[in-house]
C-alpha cells in the first residue's frame, strides 16, 4: 500500500480482526470456553478504563453518547437511545457496524460468531458491577443491526471494580445475557 493511500480498513475493524485472530489461536489451544474467559480477563481493564468515566453522566445514554464521535473516528457507526424507567437508568446501543462480521470477513473466516461482543459485554459487567448488559439483536444472527441494552439501578454507585482482572470476585454470571 502506498504511503499516501488511506487504509481502507477502519481502525476499529483492524483491532477487532486482531482480537478475533487471537481468539481463534486461543480456542485452538485451549477450547472455546477457556479462550473466551482468557479474552474476558484481558478486556476487563480496558472496559473499566473506557466505560467507567462515562458512567458519571446523568444517564447511561448521555454518558455513552459522549463516545460516539470517538467511535465514528475509528470507523464505527453507533448510536445510543435512552430507555430509562423510574427505577432503572437504561440505554440501547444501536450498532450499525458489526465488528464481529467485519472481523470475520477480514480474516476470511466462514464462521460468523459473536464472540467479540460476548467478550466485551462480559468484561464490561465484570469491570463495572453496577452495570448489566443484554443482547437484543445481532447481525451475526441475520438482524439488520446489533442492539445491546445496558442498565443500572438508579440508586447504584457508578464505581468500577477495584481490580477485576486480579481479584476475580466480580462475576458476569447473570449479566451479558444472550438472546440465543
Relevant terms:
Muramoyl-pentapeptide Carboxypeptidase, domain 2; four-stranded antiparallel sheet; alpha+beta; 180 residues; L-2-amino-thiazoline-4-carboxylic acid hydrolase; single chain
Describe the structure.
The chain is α+β, with helices and mostly antiparallel strands. It has one domain: 2-Layer Sandwich (Muramoyl-pentapeptide Carboxypeptidase, domain 2). It is built from seven helices and four strands; from the N terminus they run H-H-H-H-E-E-H-H-E-E-H. A hairpin with an 8-residue loop joins strand 3 and strand 4. Residues 161-180 have low confidence and may be disordered.
SSE diagram, text form:
Elements: H1 11-30, H2 32-51, H3 60-65, H4 68-73, E1 78-82, E2 88-95, H5 99-107, H6 115-127, E3 132-137, E4 146-153, H7 164-167
Antiparallel strand pairs: 1-2, 2-4, 3-4
Helix pairs in contact: 1-2, 1-5, 2-6
Task: Just give the CATH class.
Answer: Alpha Beta
Distance between the termini: 40 Å
Query: The CATH topology is what?
Result: Muramoyl-pentapeptide Carboxypeptidase, domain 2
Which strand-content bin applies to the residues? 15-25%
Protein name: L-2-amino-thiazoline-4-carboxylic acid hydrolase
